[in-house]
Write a structure and sequence with these properties.
Chain A: It comes from Biomphalaria glabrata. The complex is a heterodimer. Chain A is of the alpha+beta class. Helix content of chain A is about 55%, strand content about 5%. Chain A has helices at about 5-10, 15-70, 80-150, 155-255, 255-260, 350-380, 380-395, 400-410, 440-450, 465-475, 475-485, 500-515, 555-565, 575-585, 610, 645-660, 675-685, 690-695, 715-720, 725-730, 745-755, 755-765, 780-785, 790-805, 815-830, 835; strands spanning about 275-280, 285-295, 300, 310-315, 320, 330-335, 340-345, 430, 435-440, 455-460, 535, 590, 620, 670. The relative contact order of chain A is 0.04. Chain B is about 40% helix and about 20% strand. Classes of the chains: A alpha+beta, B alpha/beta.
Chain lengths: ~850, ~220
């Protein structure tokens, strides 16, 4: 009750009253400033609380995220996962946060609001009263003064002043009483009001901790104790594991790791892997350490860090392992393949021995695999077994799968699934100049006739030039047999069968190919057909995704569209059909057709009998109804089936001018139908089956057409841009050194036309690049004049390579290697991505 | 010069690369035939020339591949970098852009050439003093940072052309011959020691070239 102002004194308005009043006022001031400060502090606390709450909820999110990370980790018991514990903890924490937020809210409401009210309402009211009191006090003072100044002489004035004073006095008394009342009320109110405020906040705190306590009591009893137990168990397990791992270090000391790390695969030599030093093949001959492994009959290696495997030798069957001749390092061995040699170095003699025996083991294993799978294959029936045994023998590795793709491509060409000569299943050999597949026995006979007659390759074991594959894909056993077995006369030789003896086989093959006993001669000139003409159907390549079945409706309509396809290859919806049709049309069957005029009749095997009827105006060679082979109902991926459409466009643009007809070569009189001109025309049409037919009729591959600048068939083939047509002629003894009337060789022509792929092809076959034409220009002169960088590079490289060879065979000169690399580059581009060679 | 002498102890393939018009072909003709042609045409594709020099009493035959600088005259294959043991990366000291493109050529080498290839940065056309756009120090610092040897040459007045080829061939010879000698004794850590030998050698040469070009 310290500052309470006495009412008695108040009425007296004594100095004591005034002093106590001032005291009370100061007291209220002090209270107000403190309260103000408190409110501010409380607001700050709430702000901080909010920040804390935000940060905490961020933390909870983090814990939840961590829980996701631990999704798979289990604790001791399977149902207790690290992730669930973590999310439970996060849940508890977020509950706590909720309580905390409530607490802050209460602090705001109880403290800030109440105190603010106290300041704004109660204290303000006192202050307002104070103002009024002061004003009245002043008025009263004025009344006193006036009263005192009232002159005696003017009683009325005295009276008036007196009255005013009395009124003022009473007013002042009331006001001051009221003021004192207010002050006193505030004084008493502050005590309970503020305490009450704080009390309610304390209650809120109490609730907060109470709730928290409850929450954690539950959590602890139900969960935390359990988890703590598991954690302890886990950490003790981890300790044991760590100890075990530490003990491995002592293992290292006990025995040298070098060899134990080398042989994984439980002593299985076929899966040996480990580090070896590899000698680089460059001039530095430095050694680099690489991780080597033997897998699927391949020797592959990789760097420690980079992820890609490099295949060092893709078919170990072709390799031998031996002691290196020229290495002064220890523990070396040499892997020798037909084309390359690799020096490898192990870390110790023991390891070196291990590697050598492992490599030898996998070589012999690879051989056994092949034999085995071939046996299995022979027993099973065609397509399905082919694939499965293929995958046994040739796992999905770069080169091996290449051989597999090659095999698949080759065997799906009509007739190729059986030996061309005896009909045995699953032929694994090929004669690349005839374009046929053969069984091993027949391939032996072919070999016996010499490479000028038949060039034999293994489909699975040999490395193939992409061009050879193209040739093969253009022909096929059906086509060949329609030519070479057109009129079989078994009195000349008995037909070979899969099981026949060698003599039968040999005489059959000799009669078939080398005596050409069964072919049909070209139609001779007779009076009825002098007025008629002949032509060769221009070939387009086999498409890369053929859908044979779609084209199974043969007949005129289809052929009509086939006629129109050449120019609209990509736009025409029917082009896909037609591609298939083209595929079928590989037979060199002579047929007669002419879009509208001619009868849409095709003549299986021979058109000549029909010619006599005279209702046809001409013969188109190599144009025949699609031919369908049972079982070819799957869509094939002929990876490198042929030159791209670009090339075709190129060809078309060349030929349109020359021949005036988009789809066939120019029409020739029947009187001129002789094998040589047929080969010439077929070359210009890049039609390999017709070329083969012409050759079968003894066409000279180097025949000179005096009517057209003295060109040879290969020069015509160059114009088409077709690698396959050129390769086919070269395989059949066409010469590259022939010159036309202008002194130009095929290489000149390819250079002039900018056919990089063919320049590469001819240089690989040792075309003479120093040959000068009648203007004295070499191909290089022409290429430089045309600024054709690729052809210039090829020509100069070939020249360099020749020079290097001349100047005494220094082994491993860089020119030679680069020559091979660059030519391989270009060959692959020409065969697989010819569009890359089209520049400008 | 450059005639066929079939007797040689080493054959090194060296490529000349750099922007179009920096003088690669003239450097080559100056070195191999002592010829210079002010009006030489753009190289198309690739050209070769050889010349043999003596180092340490050994005959070293340099087979130098001069490549086209102009993009449209460059062959599509990058295979011609294979087997190269040295590269002269040429720029024109009077054309700053050709110097800026050195980075691009380095990247090309890194992508396609052997990682141990010895590279020499060559600032050609040093006779064009009044037109100089690339300060010698800047180029030398760049070369140092990238572990390249450095020299400035003039194919026109023959300055330093011999030295440039001699230096790079000697450097290659050192590495190759050292390797042959060192092969057997310390074979445990050959990869790392290889790297060192390459980086040490250029500092030698830099001393020489400094004397020669800043006289």
């Amino acid at each position: 009750m310290k500052h309470t102002v006495d009412f008695k004194e108040c009425l007296k308005d004594s100095p004591k009253f005034r002093a106590s009043l001032e005291d009370a006022e100061n007291d209220i001031e002090a209270l107000e400033s403190r309260l103000d400060k408190l409110v501010k502090q409380c607001t700050a606390m709430i702000e901080a609380g909010k920040m804390f709450s935000n940060a905490s909820s961020g933390f909870v999110v983090g814990v939840r995220d961590l829980a996701n990370y631990f999704n798979d980790d289990t604790l001791v018991s399977d149902n207790a996962k690290v992730s669930t514990s973590l999310s439970r903890f996060a849940h508890a924490m977020s509950e706590m946060l909720k309580y905390f937020n409530i607490l802050m809210d209460q602090a705001h409401r109880s403290i800030c609001k109440n105190l603010n009210n106290f300041i704004r309402i109660d204290i303000k009211k006192v202050k307002e009263t104070k103002k009024l009191f002061e004003k009245i006090s002043d008025d009263m003072d004025a009344a006193y003064i006036r009263n005192s100044q009232a002159p005696k002489s003017k009683p009325q004035e005295c009276e008036e002043a007196n009255n005013t004073l009395t009124a003022m006095r009473s007013c002042f008394a009331h006001t001051s009483l009221d003021y004192v009342f207010q002050v006193n009320v505030l004084n008493s109110k502050k005590r309970f009001d503020i305490l009450d405020t704080m009390l309610s906040f304390m209650h809120a705190q109490n609730t907060f901790f109470h709730q928290g306590h409850d929450l954690f009591r539950d959590l602890e009893t139900t969960y935390m104790k359990d988890i703590a137990g598991q954690v302890e168990e886990l950490s003790s397990k981890a300790k044991i594991e760590r100890k075990e791992m530490e003990e491995r270090h002592t293992l290292v000391q006990q025995k040298d790791l070098s060899t134990s790390s080398l042989l994984q695969g439980d002593g299985n030599l076929l899966q040996t892997e480990g580090y070896l030093f590899k000698r680089n093949s460059n001039a530095f001959k430095n050694y680099v350490r690489r991780w080597f492994c033997i897998q699927d009959s391949q020797l592959v290696y990789r760097k420690r860090t980079k992820d890609t495997l490099t295949v060092m030798e893709d078919d170990l069957r072709l390799c031998t392992i031996r002691q290196p001749v020229d290495s002064d390092r220890r523990f070396c061995f040499e892997v020798l393949s037909p084309t390359r040699s690799h020096i490898l170095q192990a870390d110790s003699d023991e390891e070196c021995q291990l590697w050598v025996s492992a490599l030898n083991a996998s070589i012999s294993h690879a051989y056994k695999e092949t034999m085995h799978s071939q046996e299995v294959e022979n027993k099973r029936s065609s397509t399905s077994s082919k694939e499965s045994s293929q995958s046994d023998m040739l796992p999905a590795e770069p080169k091996q799968s290449k051989a597999k793709i090659r095999m698949e491509q080759l065997l799906t060409i009509p007739g190729n699934s059986h030996c061309c000569d005896c009909g045995a299943n699953e032929p694994r050999w090929a004669s690349i100049n005839l374009g046929i597949t053969l069984c091993i026995e027949c391939s032996g006979i072919h070999r016996g006739f010499g490479v000028h007659l038949s060039k034999v390759r293994s489909i699975t074991l040999d490395t193939w030039e992409p061009e050879h594959l193209k040739v093969m894909l253009e022909i096929g056993n059906d086509v060949v047999n329609r030519i070479y077995e057109a009129e079989v006369d078994e009195t000349i030789a008995a037909r070979a069968t899969p099981d026949c003896n060698r003599t039968v086989r040999e005489s059959w093959i000799r009669a078939k190919y080398f005596q050409r006993a069964f072919i049909k001669k070209l139609p001779g000139v007779n009076k009825s057909n002098v007025s008629r003409k002949w032509s060769v159907r221009k070939k387009t390549r086999r498409s890369s995704s053929q859908s044979f079945l779609k084209t199974s409706r043969s007949g005129g309509e289809l052929k009509d569209s086939a006629w129109s396809r050449n120019r609209v290859v990509s736009e025409d919806l029917s082009s896909e059909l037609l591609e298939g049709g083209e595929t079928g049309a590989t037979g060199a069957v002579l047929s007669v057709s002419n879009a509208t005029l001619m009868e849409k009749r095709s003549f299986k095997n021979n058109a000549r009998e029909e010619q006599a009827s005279g209702d046809v105006a001409g013969i188109v060679f190599g144009d025949d109804p699609p031919l369908f082979v049972a079982g070819l109902n799957k869509s094939l991926d002929l990876e490198s089936s042929d030159e791209s459409l670009h090339e075709y466009d190129d060809e078309a643009s060349i030929n349109v001018g020359v021949d005036g007809d988009d789809f066939t070569t120019s029409w020739e009189d029947m009187s001129k139908l002789d094998p040589n001109l047929l080969l010439y025309k077929a070359s210009a049409a890049r039609n390999l089956p017709v070329m083969l037919e012409a050759l079968a009729n003894s066409a000279d591959p180097n025949w000179v057409n005096l009517e057209e600048d003295g060109k040879t068939p290969i020069m015509k083939a160059v114009q088409t841009g077709s690698l396959a047509a050129c390769e086919f002629l070269l395989l059949n003894n066409a010469k590259l050194d022939r010159k036309d009337k202008n002194g130009k060789t095929a290489l000149h022509h390819a250079t002039i036309l900018g056919h990089t792929g063919q320049v590469c092809q001819f240089l690989k076959r040792r075309a003479d690049q120093n040959a000068k034409d009648n203007q004295g220009q070499t191909p290089l002169d022409i290429a430089v004049a045309n600024a054709n960088a690729d052809i210039v590079t090829l020509l100069r490289l070939a020249k360099l390579n020749d020079e290097m060879k001349e100047s005494d065979g220094y082994l491993g000169n860089p020119g030679d290697e680069t020559f091979q690399d660059v030519f391989r580059d270009f060959t692959n581009m020409a065969s697989n991505n010819p569009e890359k060679l089209k520049r400008k | 010069m450059g005639t066929k002498d079939d007797e040689y102890d080493y054959l090194f393939k060296v490529v000349l690369i750099g922007d179009s018009g920096v003088g690669k072909s003239n450097l080559l003709s100056r070195f191999t035939r002592n010829e210079f042609n002010l009006e030489s045409k753009s190289t198309i594709g690739v050209e070769f020339a050889t010349r043999s020099i003596q180092v340490d009493g050994k005959t070293i035959k340099a087979q130098i591949w001069d490549t086209a600088g102009q993009e449209r005259y460059r062959a599509i294959t990058s295979a011609y970098y294979r087997g190269a043991v040295g590269a002269l990366l040429v720029y024109d000291i009077a054309k700053h852009l050709t110097y800026e493109n050195v980075e691009r050529w380095l990247r090309e080498l890194r992508d396609h050439a052997d990682q141990n290839i010895v590279i020499m940065l060559v600032g050609n056309k040093s006779d064009l003093r009044h037109l100089r756009a690339v300060p010698t120090d800047e180029a030398r610092n760049f070369a140092e940072r990238n572990n390249l040897s450095f020299i400035e040459t003039s194919a026109l007045d023959s300055t330093n052309v011999e030295s440039a080829f001699h230096n790079i061939l000697t450097e290659i010879y050192k590495i190759v011959s050292q390797k042959q000698i060192r092969d057997s004794p310390d074979d445990d850590n050959s990869p790392s020691s290889n790297v060192q030998t390459i980086t040490v050698a250029p500092t030698d040469l830099k001393g020489q070239s400094k004397k020669q070009c800043c006289s």
